[in-house]
Amino acid sequence: MNSIINTSKTLTKNPDLNDFHMHTHDFYEIYLFLSGNAKYFVEGNIYKLKPGDIFFIKKSEAHSLLITSTAPYERAVIQFTVGAAVSDRTRDILSFFDSFALGKGNRFPFSMFKDKLWAYYIDKIISSESVDTKSLYLSVLINEMYECLSDILTINTEQDGFSDIIAYLNNHLADHLTLDGICSKFYISKSQLNRKFKHMTGSTVWEYIITKRLLSAKELLKNGEPPTKVYTKCGFNDYTSFFRAYKTKFSVSPKNDCIKSLKISNRGRKSFPNCVERTSSSL
User: Comparing C-alpha atoms, which of 99, 98, 82, 97 is closest to residue 145?
Assistant: First the structure.
């Protein structure tokens, strides 16, 4: 099982909204807000940040920072794969997090854990040079966060109807989506939709849709689905456009990503018939 833990702690003295775009990834992230004036966007939900707040970001969740002033901004981030967990219980907890709807169970406000050692655990994960030590403190942190989930799920967020649009897009990624159809569904004009989307995420509607479709495709490939079937399940009209978008996003072809995943699950077997890929010479 692939085990990766990447950590960082940064201070931005003069933050610019244009530097913080919506993004997604296929690993988990624990985010600690230390200082600044900002809000945090997760799949249509908006949280006003307070120093000490922690966010748990699941795989494939779209998230971004919404800067509200130029005050210095500081944060700490831990990004990790499921293989970084040191116990079966911790891996089970991560699977439980994965079962939540996108944008649910993300924020752990400082007011709820001020008597706990979570900030200390995060500091130890970031500062330790030993991967084993990082994994140990990470598992302790995840286990303690899990104990607070019943309270976390009741937290209110700023939504303004935007989360409904996000949920609709995620539930219809494989369908033929159009701006006209989305606007008709939610009784909103194209200019309003684009303006709201740009403000909330820093990206366009189509950038969001394509990114989420590609992450869905990556998960299907990881589970052994052949590339020539995956693209239709993820809303792409033809294989060529899917191939190019996938290669641009992940710097690897769908076929090679499929083979890589099957090598891990099949312990190095050389034959991968499901990963046959149609490409033209121009690709």
Answer: 97
Residue type (1 letter), 111: S
Left if phi > 0, otherwise alpha if psi is -120 to 50, otherwise beta: which for 52?
left
The pLDDT value given to residue 77: 95
- Give pLDDT < 70 ranges for the chain: 1-2, 154-161, 202, 261-283
| CA dihedral sign of residues 5, 8, 9, 14 | negative
- Reduce the secondary structure of the chain to three states and give it as a string: CCCCEEEEEEEECCCCHHHCCCECCCCEEEEEEEECCEEEEECCEEEECCCCCEEEECCCCCEEEEECCCCCEEEEEEEECHHHCCCHHHHHHHHHHHCCCCCCCCEECHHHHCCCCHHHHHHHHHHCCCHHHHHHHHHHHHHHHHHCHHHHCCCCCECCCHHHHHHHHHHCCCCCCCHHHHHHHHCCCHHHHHHHHHHHHCCCHHHHHHHHHHHHHHHHHHCCCCHHHHHHHCCCCCHHHHHHHHHHHHCCCHHHHHHHHHHHHCCCCCCCHHHCCCCCCCC
Q: Residue 78 has what pLDDT?
A: 96
The model's pLDDT over 7-53, given as tens digits with 9 standing for 90+, comes to 999 999 988 877 787 888 889 999 999 999 999 988 878 888 999 99
The half-sphere exposure of 96 on its side-chain side, counting CA atoms within 13 A, is 14
> Is 226:87 a contact under the CB 8 Å cutoff?
no
Alpha carbons 76 and 79: distance in angstroms, whole number: 10
pTM for the model stands at 0.73
Dihedral sign computed on CA atoms, order 262, 266, 269, 271 = negative
CA distances from 96 to 22, 143, 205, 236, 256 (A): 25, 12, 29, 30, 30
